[in-house]
Backbone:
């Protein structure tokens, strides 16, 4: 017998329709198997689709499974923020301004600003940022992006970073270099070395944050992501740690992403420090509803 499930689609990290990063949230997905979830995500063809299930961990409002068109992710930013907004507007957070969502990495805390029944802004907490060793093949990394080595940001290391999802961070000299980047996956794999190549996050440091793009055709079936919240937490820690933005006990930054592809996004980042070390990271943004629908399954 055919089954119908309700879903909601929203734009995340934006304050206007058709900006930011689109997300589909499938409500009441209990009983769906992994293959069906993957098939639905492929059909939606968005950067991510989330599926809501009853939580298995105490203190969590819902279990959230996150799928790209190609695979499941243990953790992601715009799915966390968009799903929290949908849960709040569906009355599934009980009017609370704070909640935890169960994801593949464990509980992820979220905080709502404004009316808890229709938040104006949603923040998510990140784990500690962990960075890998510097990738020293700078000319090869630049060439894999279609750039000369001179367009890399001088003195800023190329390295991996993660607060739950791994990315390769490539700092570039300016916005023009970021916009000019075109990823050659095979060439970047050779430059990166023997380990599997993660999503490639390129950015130009700016006074108030960064101008950014993220490529992941090889990991998630997503050629370019309009806004990557899971990459933006480590980005904030990177900018502060390497002195690329003015430091203080609490730093507020914005990563502008998606502009080059016509989906401008504003990813807000808060970084707390003490004694020169990063002690807390939060990423936040606005959410705009786009459509409600019914998903028909065999």
Residues:
């Amino acid at each position: 017998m055919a089954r119908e499930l309700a879903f909601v689609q929203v734009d995340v990290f934006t304050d206007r329709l058709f900006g930011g990063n689109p997300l589909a949230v499938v409500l009441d997905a209990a009983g769906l198997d992994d293959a069906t979830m993957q098939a639905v995500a492929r059909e939606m063809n968005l950067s991510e689709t989330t599926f809501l299930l009853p939580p298995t961990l105490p203190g969590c409002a819902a279990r959230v499974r996150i799928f790209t068109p190609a695979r499941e992710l243990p953790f992601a930013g715009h799915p966390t923020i968009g799903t929290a907004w949908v849960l709040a507007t569906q009355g599934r957070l009980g009017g609370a301004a704070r909640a935890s969502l169960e994801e593949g990495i464990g509980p992820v805390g979220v905080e709502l600003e404004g009316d808890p029944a229709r938040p104006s802004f949603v923040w998510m907490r990140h784990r500690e940022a962990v960075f890998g060793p510097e990738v020293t093949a700078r000319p090869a990394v630049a060439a894999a992006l279609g750039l000369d080595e001179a367009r890399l940001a001088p003195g800023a290391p190329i390295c991996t970073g993660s607060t739950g999802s791994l990315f390769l961070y490539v700092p570039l000299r300016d916005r023009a270099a970021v916009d000019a980047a075109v990823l050659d996956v095979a060439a970047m794999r050779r430059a990166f070395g023997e380990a599997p190549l993660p999503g490639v996050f390129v950015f130009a440091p700016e006074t108030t944050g960064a101008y950014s793009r993220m490529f992941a055709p090889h990991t998630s079936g997503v050629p370019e992501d309009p806004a990557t919240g899971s990459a933006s937490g480590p980005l904030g820690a990177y900018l502060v740690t390497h002195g690329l933005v003015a430091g203080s006990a609490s730093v507020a930054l914005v990563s502008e992403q998606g502009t080059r592809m016509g989906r401008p996004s504003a990813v807000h980042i808060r970084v707390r420090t003490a004694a020169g070390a990063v002690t807390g990271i939060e990423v936040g943004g606005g959410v705009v509803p786009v459509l409600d629908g019914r998903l028909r399954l065999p």
